[in-house]
């Protein structure tokens, strides 16, 4: 009898736990698990949105990896942006955060100034950058030419288009600045005082006190940065459109990643294949590649850096 | 795994699979609603179109008002500025707010509209009303509105492409008349080009494929290419017209300053749809463009006289001078519509009623899309516009054929153009072979 009561109690406890977890479980099932399984399913189907889906085996996978001419350039661009843009954004955001926490006067003004660009709508910000960096009429190149520096083609030159996008991302680094600033202010002051008494240099204080204390935040910034960059869509699309001078209107064709596919990213392919060519199967393949890459990057980073555990939290 | 758990796991997998399959099934099979509605009863239909300029929107409103006057029981809810992407997505989504009638600015998607069943076959409707498409619409327009035996669209005005030129600049350069062959065109473009340092005071012609309407298909039309053979395979690598067209454009790029210099100049120019278009401002002396440019250019009040002519033809084919690229707006009825008979009344009015077509063409400065409208005395146009009417009526004028995956093959051809003009592709024949293989692969993927 006692055993039954114990089992019943355990069952009730399990049900209670499940009850409390159910909102998350339902959300997970509806918004993550189901779409993921569905995406996997449709990646093996020929489906145009009108005719019923037809099993096509690995045809979509073979098409995307071996015949779709935009896949590999888009993958290369996405990886370039993940490595270069995310790294520079984290370094720049941390640098601005350090500066803001050090200055004594006008802190509020500088915080506002550095945060404001982050609030600019991406389309407007990208268009503004495209005009500023216009190689023919933009003020940036005019100034560079006046002081005798060769003016790059920026969004009009395949070599410079991704660096131009990186500049745009650095301009809007306000989100990282805020979280780094909060983390930096949270580092115990007495640790710096003790280090100073021991004669530690500024670099040594940063390397052995600041960095270990804020490493979970750095990791958070890198992981979320990687995921965001994997989903990078609006800015490269708008930059390419504005720089090409051919605005996609009614009746015009999709032009991939002007100039010379250099601003093409994987999410643009998902849209192109899924909602312009209506080849949902191939779009699902690209979406799954994106998912796998995001998971791989995140797992790699978490393993190498010990996840979001602070130095002092390790057992 | 214990048997009970295995059974439960099996059920879960079965349920999951079933739900996925059911969702897949639920997302499909929306066509075939059938035309069972009574068009004589009071109803409201939704019409999506792509026009957005104020004068164009007014013209559409006037056209719709004419229909509502003739059919007081049918109200039309009009939604403008709709791209093909949005139209295609809405046709798949269906629902109460989805369009009953759609119109697209391009013929590129006719193949996709027809083959997917997104738009209904209009032949039964035409037959029911005794309308013979072959004797109602001009030949090319009749062709580009159907695919593989399915007429899912009908033409709603047309576009013809020609050459605009700055008469004042021509006089200054000592050029007596517009060029008729591409050789003459190359010579004139160089004569009209006035360099200014590393840029231009005046460019004879902007040959780059990003120069707005100077796209591959518009150049190539003057060489009368055959895009597909009878089996539907690409002829891009086989038909010499493609090689000649690409080579001409590349020569123009090289002769007029080179790709980099031209692109840098292009980045300083105004946009295609604004008053600062480089032809309006005199920065470019010749422009390949559609018939709508005449009204837009005159509205910008340029300080020179505008001339209009057909585009040149290849040397040795002077007898074909007068032809051009033609395309147009098409319209059709959504397969998801439950008001297809009422929708047909509207489509019939706007595409086959001579006075309606003429009125719309007059308002919007497009080429009429019925043979009767082309001959109508009510058609008003200034003398230069007749050049485009003649191009549209020219039996040698060509268009781009519909394909099962829409205009994807044109994107591939255009991409080769970008790569060739920039020097990324140097071996044109190899580039053409690769493009042809890509087109065939893309079609096989879509089929």
From TrEMBL, chain A:
BP terms from Gene Ontology: transmembrane transport
Every ABC transmembrane type-1 domain range: 75-301
Cellular component annotations (GO), alphabetically ordered: plasma membrane
Compartments, as annotated in UniProt: Cell membrane
Bilayer topology: Multi-pass membrane protein
Keywords: Cell membrane, Membrane, Transmembrane, Transmembrane helix, Transport
One Pfam family in the UniProt entry: BPD_transp_1
Principal location: membrane
Domain of life: Bacteria
Signal peptide segment: none
Transmembrane feature ranges: 21-44, 79-101, 113-133, 164-185, 206-227, 280-301
Homology family: Belongs to the binding-protein-dependent transport system permease family.
UniProt-recorded name of the protein: Sugar ABC transporter permease
Organism for this UniProt entry: Streptomyces misionensis
């Amino acid at each position: 009898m006692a055993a039954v009561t114990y089992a019943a109690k355990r069952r009730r406890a399990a049900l209670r736990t499940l009850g409390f977890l159910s909102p998350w479980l339902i959300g997970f099932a509806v918004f993550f698990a189901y779409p993921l399984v569905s995406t996997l399913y449709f990646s093996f189907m020929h489906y145009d949105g009108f005719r019923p889906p037809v099993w096509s085996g690995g045809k979509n996978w073979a098409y995307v990896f071996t015949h779709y001419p935009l896949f590999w350039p888009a993958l290369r661009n996405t990886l370039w942006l993940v490595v270069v843009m995310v790294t520079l954004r984290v370094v720049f955001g941390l640098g601005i955060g350090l500066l803001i926490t050090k200055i004594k006067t006008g802190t509020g003004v500088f915080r506002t100034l550095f945060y404001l660009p982050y609030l600019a709508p991406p389309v407007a910000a990208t268009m503004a950058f495209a005009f500023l960096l216009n190689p023919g009429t933009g003020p940036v190149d005019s100034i560079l030419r006046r002081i005798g520096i060769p003016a790059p083609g920026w969004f009009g030159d395949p070599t410079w288009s991704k660096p131009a996008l990186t500049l745009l991302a650095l301009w809007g680094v306000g989100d990282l600045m805020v979280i780094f600033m909060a983390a930096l202010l949270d580092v115990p002051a007495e640790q710096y005082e003790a280090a100073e008494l021991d004669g530690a240099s500024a670099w040594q204080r940063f390397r052995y006190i600041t960095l270990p204390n804020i490493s979970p935040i750095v990791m958070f910034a890198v992981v979320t940065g990687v995921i965001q960059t994997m989903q990078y869509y609006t800015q490269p699309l708008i930059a390419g459109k504005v720089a090409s001078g051919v605005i996609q209107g009614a009746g015009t064709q999709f032009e991939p990643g002007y100039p010379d596919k250099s601003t093409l990213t994987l999410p643009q392919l998902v849209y192109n294949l899924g909602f312009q060519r209506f080849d949902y199967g191939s779009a699902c393949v690209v979406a799954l590649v994106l998912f796998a890459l995001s998971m791989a990057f995140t797992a790699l980073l978490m393993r190498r850096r010990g996840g979001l555990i602070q130095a002092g939290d390790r057992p | 795994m214990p048997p009970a758990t295995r059974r439960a796991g099996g059920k879960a997998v079965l349920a999951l699979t079933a739900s996925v399959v059911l969702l897949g099934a639920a997302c499909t099979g929306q066509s075939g609603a059938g035309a069972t509605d009574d068009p004589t009863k009071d109803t409201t239909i939704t019409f999506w179109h792509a026009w957005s300029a104020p004068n164009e929107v007014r013209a559409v409103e006037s056209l719709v008002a004419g229909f509502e006057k003739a059919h007081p029981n049918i109200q039309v809810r009009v939604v403008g500025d709709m791209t093909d992407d949005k139209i295609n997505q809405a046709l798949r989504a269906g629902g109460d707010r989805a369009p009953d009638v759609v119109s697209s600015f391009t013929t590129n998607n006719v193949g996709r509209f027809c083959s997917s069943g997104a738009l209904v076959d209009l032949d039964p409707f035409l037959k029911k009303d005794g309308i013979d498409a072959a004797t109602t619409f001009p030949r090319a327009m009749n062709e580009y509105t159907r695919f593989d035996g399915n007429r899912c669209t009908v033409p709603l005005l047309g576009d013809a492409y020609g050459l605009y030129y700055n008469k004042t600049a021509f006089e200054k350069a000592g050029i007596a008349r517009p060029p008729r062959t591409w050789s003459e065109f190359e010579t004139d473009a160089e004569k009209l080009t006035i360099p200014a340092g590393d840029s231009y005071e005046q460019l004879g012609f902007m040959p780059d494929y990003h120069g707005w309407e100077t796209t591959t298909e518009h150049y190539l039309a003057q060489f009368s290419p055959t895009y597909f053979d009878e089996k539907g395979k690409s002829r891009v690598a086989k038909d010499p017209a493609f090689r000649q067209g690409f080579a001409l454009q590349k020569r123009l790029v090289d002769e007029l300053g080179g790709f980099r210099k031209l692109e840098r100049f292009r980045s300083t120019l105004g946009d295609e749809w604004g008053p600062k278009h480089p032809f309006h401002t005199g920065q470019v002396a010749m422009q390949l463009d559609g018939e709508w440019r005449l009204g837009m250019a005159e509205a910008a009040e340029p300080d020179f006289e505008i001339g209009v002519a057909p585009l040149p033809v290849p040397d040795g084919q002077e007898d074909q001078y007068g032809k051009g690229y033609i395309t147009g707006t098409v319209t059709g009825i959504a397969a998801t519509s439950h008001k297809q008979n009422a929708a047909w009344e509207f489509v019939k009015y706007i595409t086959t009623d001579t006075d309606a077509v003429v009125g719309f063409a007059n308002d919007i400065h497009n080429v009429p899309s019925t043979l009767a409208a082309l001959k109508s005395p009510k058609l008003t146009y200034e003398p230069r516009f007749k050049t485009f009417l003649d191009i549209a009526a020219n039996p040698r004028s060509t268009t781009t054929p519909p394909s099962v995956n829409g205009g994807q093959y044109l994107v591939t051809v255009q991409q080769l153009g970008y790569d060739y003009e920039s020097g990324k592709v140097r071996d044109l024949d190899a580039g053409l072979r690769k493009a042809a293989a890509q087109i065939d692969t893309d079609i096989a993927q879509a089929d």
